[in-house]
Amino acid sequence: MSVQLWTHCRVATLAADAPTPYGLIEDAALVVEGDTLAWVGPRVELPAAWRARCTTEQDAGGALITPGLIDCHTHLVYGGNRAHEFELRLQGASYEEIARAGGGIASTVKATRAASAAELEASAARRVRALMAEGVTTVEIKSGYGLTLERERKCLQVARGLGQAHAVDVRTTFLGVHAVPPEYAGNTDAYVEVVLQMLPVLHAEGLVDAVDGFCERIAFSPAQIERVFAAARGLGLPVKLHAEQLSNSGGAQLAARYQALSCDHLEWLSEDGARSMAAAGTVAVLLPGAFYFLRETRLPPIALLRQHAVPMAVSTDSNPGSSPCTSLLLMLNMACTLFRLTPEEALAG
Length: 349
Ligand code: NIG
Ligand code: FE
Description:
The chain is α/β, with parallel strands linked by helices. It has 14 helices and 12 strands. The strands form 3 sheets. The protein has a 4-stranded mixed beta sheet. It has a 4-stranded parallel beta sheet with strand order 5-6-7-8. A 4-stranded parallel beta sheet has the order 9-10-11-12. The site of N-(iminomethyl)-L-glutamic acid (NIG) has 13 residues, from helix 4. The site of fe (iii) ion has 5 residues, from loops.
């Protein structure tokens, strides 16, 4: 097996107990055995036994090496685009108004339903490759633009296929409760029943790593989300939630009661919500792209998250409406400039 020694680099280990910011090691060495990182540390401390086992030595050209980046919230399998809505928002329409008028997520549902699996695969592959070019090694991909069993399955299969076709780890999330599809307009509870039927089928097919929902007055109520969460946990699946994005609906407390992996967006998070998340170990996923593209003015309560030691993550939320973006590095930048995270918090996130 090949054993590579990499030198002429700095390494940001981000180790929690490191004595330096970023866990930074100046003049570092890494030993890579097969596809495993076998040793990392200051070059002068490389054990002689490891040095002797190295079959090749690589010059990293003075690069800064970080852990692989994780984009933990994307909706990157979709058809069409929503450029027209961007123009409407510039003219003063809000995301919520556009959604209530039948645009928003519903318009992407229409375009996604009309697209073939091959078309979805081709456009999503471009987005995945853009993320990978910036160092992303793990990407979460949600469904939620199909909203029938067959169409959600198609999108989740495309997502799984992207992980097989690219050197990236893909985690799939079933987001059946993203929007009420047109055929159930005015009958949200009946649609929730349909989602409850889809979930065990898609899970049995190995297509679901986690279950998400959109808890908002233009989407699903806490009571409706709770039904889906109870079913997910009953199947042993972890949950996460689009929570407190446009209003405070207590989604964070609900998600915490179901030991959610994360609550995402959180511009309207309350102190009680932050406390619940901290107690449950639920991560706050910050999405500066959606904040920026929707021209929001209310910031997520970063000070509150720090005060209650809620772990923070940063993600692209890559989607055609609220965050048409495939640059996680730009999101790290915006997490600092818009949300005032420190660069170290942003990279760790
Ligand atoms: O994370 N808020 C709900 N879901 C997405 C938006 C999806 C869309 O607008 O197509 C979000 O912002
Ligand atoms: Fe999202």
